[in-house]
Write a structure and sequence with these properties.
single chain; 705 residues; alpha+beta; 5-stranded antiparallel β-sheet; 16 helices; 20% helix
Length: 705
């Protein structure tokens, strides 16, 4: 219906604004009267609306307001912008459903009631939109919004970025914490809940929510769900949020069918009680979990096969809890090895002999690639949930140490590089870099190994600190703390391997660390929710060496100058921004021997992009990208068939892609000729269960991407 376009925008606003209390109509009108007595100027209101838009809406509708075709309606020069903006206000405060066509494109979804928003915030953001993006201008004031409350429900669409099982699986992966091990506290200030209901909700929370909101609900990728927030929102609001989700990435657990109405109600009440305390995991627990399966002296002294280990690929078989070792030369499976649950990354040792995998359950497996077939030689569990592992690479310390970072408990662990014997555990709890407030759950994200010093570089997500952990004397550990910005996530090296560039996704910044001088050299503003993976290094025909990232929250491919010596005028600045496939990207990749830049978009709502790959010609970047139908080439039948993570072979003449399908559906690995961009091989079979990340041994050891 024409009166309710724009409206995916306002879904973004509503369900991500955490500081507006649900108050009565009388209080709202009173607030409007007070505001009128000291009303800000139109320019000030537009400025406030712009801030709301950038922090809450740009993830879907983009900074430019152009939206994402097939997913989120455009706001820029929209053919419905000229319609009475009060229709948009009605949709915000009353909700909407139905079908609408915007600029010739159909959009359909469900928008829940967002009546808890303040009148002034609704008015300001609508005013910003109608005065921006080529729209004709106008003014909505808080009194108009207040008068509209209680009107009939508007009908129309609302784009929603997390509506599929695939995206829910990615965003809401279960935390590997046993609810039975937690300490439960039902307090008198929350709504009534029985012990059985509390136990049920605890299990649901760890299975569905903790990965984004944190074990202690302090927030990270998801908003904080502490009781000062949840009790203010109330049960009805929380039920709506859980049922319908939000445009910031919160899954629609209710309308998707993943949670019943009863479970939604139990979870909404549970969130208004103090969170159950998860158990700690220290040195005694690690020692008890550590198993040395094959002693170093019992391992082979040389490779026991004639295969090219440098061109092995370690491929995560996510839901099987396995890693497949594939020979990149022959495309044959060398081994399938049982690992921890949902391996996040695989990292080879500096020598390339050992492969370390870490599951989301914080279990590390050490695999000897010299064995025939490769097999595990040690294992350890370093916590209850984790994401990162790395080995020492500084000259003279190759393979000497390994390190792992945990989400829970928030800590990192240094281990012996030959055996995984735990040597040192260090907590990351502490003060945030910006507000200097204590954070009880600052999780360890990416870890990389410096080649300039005997150091690991450790990202601490929630406090926004980057730690330079010097392992020259682990009995007297020296740690340099660099304040960067909150929500640090993934990152990778520039081509010289001196500078570490890391994305702070929820802060929309790239932090640059000089590993030689051991300092922060730049903190660069970038588009919403960058997701670099390790990024890509290439030679831009105009700007010289650059490091490239894509994003989850916007459709841009962003180039940062990365050569401060020969191109200082471009160093650590955004020098080029290209339109990609509309957001939902997890990784980009290139190679020194290639003229191509590859971009995935597995979490894009449009299957034309999520089941394909984009490729740019580095020598003609302005020409845009070519889309290759990777999933179609694999001929797998039904399923979401998300194409994820390009990875080069050692020679740089092939690019490998995972097709991540449903657990009960066929998945595959697709190999493409880098020069011709034509299909070379499809590797598939029942053993390839939900393949995701891939890591070529040589390229990963040498940080070539």
């Amino acid at each position: 219906m024409k009166t309710s376009t724009l409206l995916a925008l306002f879904l973004c606003l509503g369900l991500t604004t955490s500081n507006i209390a649900a108050i009565t109509k009388d209080k709202l009108l009173h607030a409007t009267d007070l505001a009128s007595a000291n009303a800000p100027t139109l320019e000030e209101r537009i400025s406030n609306g712009e801030k709301l838009y950038k922090s809450n809406c740009a993830a879907c509708h983009q900074i430019t307001g152009k939206g994402v075709t097939g997913a989120f309606p455009p706001l820029a020069e929209s053919d419905y912008i000229a319609i009475d903006p009060m229709n948009a206000v009605l949709a915000v405060i009353n909700g909407l459903t139905g079908l609408v066509t915007v600029n010739g494109q159909d959009y359909t979804s469900v928008m829940p009631n967002l009546s808890y928003m303040s009148d002034s915030d609704v008015a300001d953001v609508v005013t910003f939109v109608i005065n921006s993006f080529g729209n004709k201008g106008g003014d909505i004031n808080a009194a108009q919004v207040a008068a509209a409350r209680g009107s009939d429900k508007a009908i129309g669409p609302a784009g929603h970025p997390v509506t599929t099982g695939a995206e829910m699986a990615y965003q809401g992966v279960p935390a590997a914490i046993n609810a039975d091990d937690t300490h439960h506290l039902i307090d008198s200030e929350g709504p009534n809940i029985t012990q059985a209901e509390f136990d049920t909700a605890t299990e649901i929370f760890f299975q569905r929510c903790a990965g984004c909101h944190g074990v202690l609900r302090q927030g990270a990728a998801g908003k904080a769900l502490t009781t000062d927030v949840t009790r203010q929102k109330g049960t009805d609001y929380l039920k709506a949020l859980i049922t319908y989700g939000s445009a910031a990435g919160m899954p629609n657990w209710g309308t998707s069918g993943d949670l019943s109405k009863e479970q939604v109600d139990i979870l909404a009440r549970f969130l208004q009680h103090e969170p159950p305390a998860a158990p700690e995991w220290g040195m005694p627990e690690m020692v008890n979990s550590w198993k040395l399966l094959v002693k170093p002296e019992d391992r082979p002294g040389k490779p026991q096969h004639d295969l090219n280990i440098d061109n092995f690929f370690a491929i995560t078989l996510r839901d099987a809890g396995q890693v497949a070792i594939i020979d990149g030369d022959t495309k044959k499976t060398v081994a399938i090895i049982k690992t921890g649950y949902a391996v996040h990354i695989s990292r080879p040792s500096a020598s390339g002999r050992y492969l370390f995998t870490i599951g989301r359950d914080a279990k590390i497996d050490m695999i000897d690639l010299w064995m025939d077939p490769p097999q595990r030689v040690a294992e350890i569990k370093v916590g209850l949930e984790a994401r990162s592992v790395e080995s020492s690479k500084f000259h003279g310390y190759e393979d000497k140490y390994a390190i792992a970072g945990s989400y829970w408990p928030p800590q990192y662990t240094i281990m012996d590089g030959d055996t995984l014997k735990p040597l040192k555990v260090v907590s990351t709890r502490g003060m945030t870099v910006d507000t200097q407030e204590y954070h009880p759950e600052p999780r360890v994200a990416a870890i990389v190994a410096s080649r300039e010093h005997p150091e690991f570089i450790v990202n601490v997500k929630e406090t926004g600190k980057i730690l330079l952990v010097n392992y020259a004397d682990i009995d007297n550990l020296s740690v340099t703390t660099i304040g960067a910005t909150r929500y640090l996530h993934d990152g990778g090296w520039d081509a010289s391997h001196r500078y570490f560039l890391t994305a702070a996704d929820q802060s929309s910044k790239i932090a640059v660390i000089d590993s030689k001088e051991r300092s922060l050299v730049a903190l660069t503003e970038i588009g919403n929710i960058p997701h670099s993976g390790r990024g890509a290094n290439l030679l831009d025909p105009i700007f010289g060496p650059v490091w490239v990232t894509s994003a989850l929250g916007n459709g841009d491919v962003t180039f940062l100058g990365s050569d401060p010596e020969d191109h200082p005028q471009h160093a650590w600045k955004v020098v080029r921004t290209l339109p990609g496939m509309g957001g939902g990207s997890l990784s980009v990749k290139s190679h020194p021997n290639s003229n191509n830049l590859w971009l995935d978009a597995p979490l894009n709502a449009d299957t034309r992009f999520s089941q394909a790959i984009a490729v740019f010609d580095i020598n003609n970047l302005e020409a845009g990208f070519e889309v290759l139908p990777i999933a179609e080439w694999a001929d797998l039948g039904d399923g979401p068939k998300r194409v994820v993570q390009p990875e080069y072979n050692k020679a740089g003449d092939e690019v490998w892609f995972s097709i991540w399908n449903g657990l009960e559906q066929k998945s595959a690995i697709v190999v493409v000729d880098d020069k011709t961009r034509k299909l070379k091989t499809v590797i598939k079979g029942p053993e390839f269960v939900t393949p995701t990340g891939k890591f070529n041994i040589y390229n990963t050891v040498h940080d070539i991407y």
